[in-house]
């Protein structure tokens, strides 16, 4: 099989186009996260996150990142703060707030309002009773 100059140019252009598409898709996936609305619950004296109809309140600090999963969102008032899934648990019940700068002592674990079945491995981190 003999490649002509025209065939080589087409292969190079097609390869370049594929690389651009893949890079563009990767940037889009990494840069597009769901925003979690942040509000101050003055009655309870805590910060709450809200996503759709679910309200999350602080549960406690996890001192290491063993439970921190993939980033699923960001705070609407601080896009540098990451909202991550809790490994092996649904994001409709549990989330973690992680900030490289502010959370040097651990990740803040949040529980959705109404969740009453607390897994044993998360029970140990309970610091707040909201």
Please give a structural write-up.
By secondary structure, the protein is an alpha+beta fold. It folds into two domains: 1-32; 35-123, no CATH class. 24% of the residues lie in helices and 36% in strands. It contains two helices and seven strands; from the N terminus they run αβββββββα. It has helices at 5-31, 120-123; strands at 34-41, 46-51, 54-62, 68-75, 82-86, 94-98, 107-112. A seven-stranded mixed β-barrel has the order 1-2-3-7-6-5-4. Strand 2 and strand 3 form a beta hairpin. The longest helix has 27 residues, at 5-31. Mean pLDDT is 82; it is low at 20-29.
Into how many domains do the coordinates divide?
2
> Per DSSP, what share of the residues sits in E-state strands of 2 or more residues?
35-45%
**What letter string, H or E per element, gives the SSE order?**
HEEEEEEEH
- Give the neighbour order of strands across the main sheet: 1-2-3-7-6-5-4
Classify the helix fraction into a percent range: 10-25%
Number of continuous helical runs: 2
Mean pLDDT: 82
What structural class do the secondary elements suggest? alpha+beta
| Poorly predicted sequence stretches spanning 5 or more consecutive residues | 20-29
Quaternary status: single chain
Give the number of DSSP strands: 7
What summary fits the major beta sheet? 7 strands, mixed, barrel
Specify Rg, calculated over alpha carbons.
21 Å
**Straight-line N-to-C gap:** 72 Å
Q: Give the overall silhouette.
A: elongated
């Amino acid at each position: 099989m003999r490649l002509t100059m025209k065939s080589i140019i087409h292969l190079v252009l097609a390869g370049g186009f594929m690389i651009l598409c893949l890079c563009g898709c990767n940037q889009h996936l990494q840069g597009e996260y769901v925003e979690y609305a942040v509000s101050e619950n003055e009655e309870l004296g805590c910060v709450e996150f809200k996503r759709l109809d679910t309200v999350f309140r602080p549960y406690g600090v996890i001192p290491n990142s063993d439970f921190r999963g993939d980033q699923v969102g960001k705070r609407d008032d601080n896009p540098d703060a990451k909202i991550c899934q809790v490994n092996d648990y649904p994001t409709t019940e549990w989330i973690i707030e992680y900030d490289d700068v502010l959370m040097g002592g651990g990740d803040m674990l949040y529980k959705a309002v109404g969740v009453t079945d607390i897994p044993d491995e998360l029970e140990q981190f309970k610091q707040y009773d909201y």
